[in-house]
Design goal:
- With 613 residues, this protein is of the alpha/beta class.
- The chain has 3 domains: 3-249, Glutamine Phosphoribosylpyrophosphate, subunit 1, domain 1 (4-Layer Sandwich), CATH 3.60.20.10; 252-451, Glucose-6-phosphate isomerase like protein, domain 1 (Rossmann fold), CATH 3.40.50.10490; 455-600, 3-Layer(aba) Sandwich (Rossmann fold).
- It is 36% helix and 23% strand.
- Strand 2 (31-39) and strand 3 (45-53) form a beta hairpin.
- It is globular and about 85 Å long.
- The two termini are 29 Å apart.
- The model has no long low-confidence stretch (mean pLDDT 94).
- Bound molecules: 6-O-phosphono-alpha-D-glucopyranose.
- 6-O-phosphono-alpha-D-glucopyranose binds next to helix 10.
Length: 613
């Protein structure tokens, strides 16, 4: 995710900002910038911005390690592109009109398009494609000399999440900050005061920090820090001492990026879903396709690799049920060479976290060469697949560092649900009421994922018992088969335990011969129609000596009649169950690997982004 650092004190700000931004590099970024306030040679206050695409090294070189940007008060930012491609113009900080204000932002302004249209009519012009620039101009609009008032008025107009660092040109030496649903801290020290999106950025200078409460505004000078609520009343806040080391802090206190990213899933899913739901209905405007074009799609061809392929498997069940469009799913490495027979009006969907996977990119090019419209479901903005696809539906998972994907997978599922609902509606398969019921439940998924995470100890305990398994099997039917594939892949990727996932009905055609005493078989069963069938399959393996773990939804208590151990996930609409059952499966893989003492974040022989064939 993007990183924010701010400093106002008694030494040059830019070197401190660069230093802090460097500590946030692990979060991933594609460009960086700083804004520093100073008094020019005519005695006029100025705010100077310097930005660069690429690594921080480039910004360091441009600014002579910060020395060429004078001033003791400034804000800095590393950007992970969301709205608008990675470029100098889209990178932060952003000026408001006449360079009166400079802003850095983490988060997503959901209603930025409406604000942008309104401000454009009022004479504001926009240089970038970002949502952030709308905040800069809104602040300008409301600024009449009182920064706290301007910020508070701005807050009443923006929807979404934000952590903002703000400089007002006529307030040299002062930094303003505010946050809603996106983290931001302030730190104090003898040399000056800081803001940062994460602790490691300022740990070198201070351990005395305050985690800014949601919806509070902060004013910092080199000597003082004041907090205000949205009604502009001053409030008292307490500071606390940070006692973690830097490395632990970078992982937010988690032992591994994988676990951190598992815990980021509620937020990632929320960020992916909520900007796409307007008044209870799915808004697919960003695809650039009319309702008629959506209705005309005769077939969908999905292609992807690895976990993204499992998302496509889930999508097949989900989209076919919700939109009644036939969906074909291919591994990208197969599709690119098989000269598939495809009907006119087929929409090709390529799913990829990185947007750079060689086979997925080749599949996209093949489809385009043959004249098909391609939609990319992609996480990395400005990546090759995002650039070359006709339409892009971004997943807002933020940078994923662990090789084994978790939060990107969950956001891909969410993206697929949105598409399925939008398509179902456009094709008249589901009505408004059904759509609203589905979107309301989609919005509840993040809190349900949180509930599963609260029970992680049960999974941890269970995983420890099976860390030394030789083989582990996963079985499921329908949507649960797709989830089983992902559970099995997660496990083998990081624990190196041989694992296979089977459509439970296929067991009798071979795999059952591998079942021996004590072998763990994980049965996933969330679909009512298929529940009894899966239970029968579990009985079959159990009677041949398997130890059976059942994963199902609360309410399906008959699972305990056959399973040796049962993990329950909250109830949801059956079509969304994959989003919940995958969480215990991720945790199972994680804790099994941990039990074996393996480096979970860097599994042997695997790469995060496979850019070669
Ligand atoms: C690698 C990663 C997987 C990922 C797959 C596809 O194998 O380890 O986690 O699912 O590539 O990557 P993509 O970036 O296209 O989603």
């Amino acid at each position: 995710m993007c990183g924010i650092v701010g400093f106002t004190g008694r030494q040059q700000a830019a070197p401190v900002l660069l230093d802090g931004l460097e500590k946030l590099e692990y979060r991933g970024y594609d460009s960086a910038g700083v804004a520093v306030s100073d008094i020019d040679k005519n005695g006029e206050p100025v705010v100077e911005i310097v930005k660069a695409k690429g690594r921080l090294k480039v910004l360091r070189e441009m600014t002579d390690d910060g020395r060429s940007v004078p001033g003791t008060c400034g804000i800095g930012h590393t950007r992970w592109a969301t709205h608008g491609e990675p470029s100098v113009v889209n990178s932060h900080p952003h000026y408001a009109k006449d360079k009166r204000i400079a802003v850095v932002h983490n988060g997503i302004i959901e209603n930025y398009q409406q604000i942008r249209e309104r401000l454009t009519k009022e004479g504001y012009s926009f240089l970038s494609a970002t949502d952030t620039e709308t905040v800069a101009h809104l602040l300008d609009k409301y600024y009449t000399g009182n920064p706290i008032e301007a910020i508070s008025r701005m807050m009443f107009h923006v929807r979404g999440s934000y952590a903002l660092g703000i400089l007002f040109r006529d307030r040299p030496g002062e930094i303003y900050a505010v946050r809603k649903d996106s983290p931001l801290i302030v730190g104090r020290s003898d040399q000056g005061n800081f803001i940062a999106s994460d602790v490691p950025a300022i740990l070198k200078y201070t351990r005395d920090v305050c985690f800014i409460p949601n919806l509070e505004i902060v004013k910092l000078t080199d000597q003082e820090i004041h907090f205000y609520n949205v009604d502009q009343e001053e409030v008292e806040e307490t500071f606390s001492e940070i006692n973690w080391d830097t490395e632990a802090a970078e992982k937010g206190g988690f032992a591994h990026f994988m676990l951190k990213e598992i815990y980021e899933q509620p937020k990632a899913v929320r960020d992916t879903v909520s900007p796409r739901i307007k008044d209870g209905c799915v808004d697919l405007e960003e695809l650039g396709m009319t309702g008629e074009e959506l209705a005309k799609i005769s077939r969908i061809q999905m292609v992807a690799c690895g976990s993204a392929y499992h998302v496509c498997m889930t999508a097949k069940y989900m989209v076919e049920q919700t939109a009644r469009v036939p969906v074909d799913v291919d591994l990208a490495s197969e599709f690119r060479y098989r000269n598939a027979v495809m009907e006119k009006d087929t929409l090709v969907i390529v799913v990829s976290q990185s947007g750079e996977t060689a086979d997925s990119l080749a599949a996209l090019r093949e489809a385009k060469k043959r004249g098909f419209r391609v939609l990319g479901i992609v996480n990395v903005v400005g990546s090759s697949i995002a650039r070359e696809a006709d339409s892009v539906f971004y997943t807002w998972a933020g940078p994923e560092i662990s090789v084994a994907t978790t939060k990107a997978y969950s956001t891909q599922l969410a993206a697929v649900y949105l598409l399925a609902i939008g398509l179902g509606r456009a094709r008249g398969v589901i009505g408004e009421e059904a759509e609203k019921e589905m979107t309301a439940e989609l919005m509840r998924l993040p809190e349900k994922i949180e509930r599963i995470l609260e029970e992680k100890e049960r999974i941890q305990w269970f995983a420890n018992k099976f860390s030394h398994s030789k083989d582990i099997f996963f079985i499921g039917r329908g949507l649960d088969y797709a989830s089983s594939l992902e559970g099995s892949l997660k496990l083998k990727e990081i624990s190196y335990i041989h694992s296979e996932a089977y459509a439970a009905g296929e067991l009798k055609h071979g795999t059952i011969s591998l079942i021996e005493d004590g072998i763990l078989v994980v049965g996933v069963a969330t679909q009512k129609e298929l529940f009894e069938k899966l239970i029968s399959n579990m009985v079959e393996v159990k009677s041949r000596g398997a130890y059976v773990l059942g994963v199902t939804s609360y309410g399906n208590y008959s699972m305990e009649d056959v399973a040796n151990y049962t993990i329950y996930v909250p109830k949801t609409l059956e079509c969304f169950a994959a989003s919940l059952v995958v969480v215990p499966l991720q945790l199972l893989a994680y804790y099994v690997a941990l039990g074996k003492g393996l480096d979970v974040d860097k599994p042997r022989n695997l790469a995060k982004s496979v850019t070669v064939e």
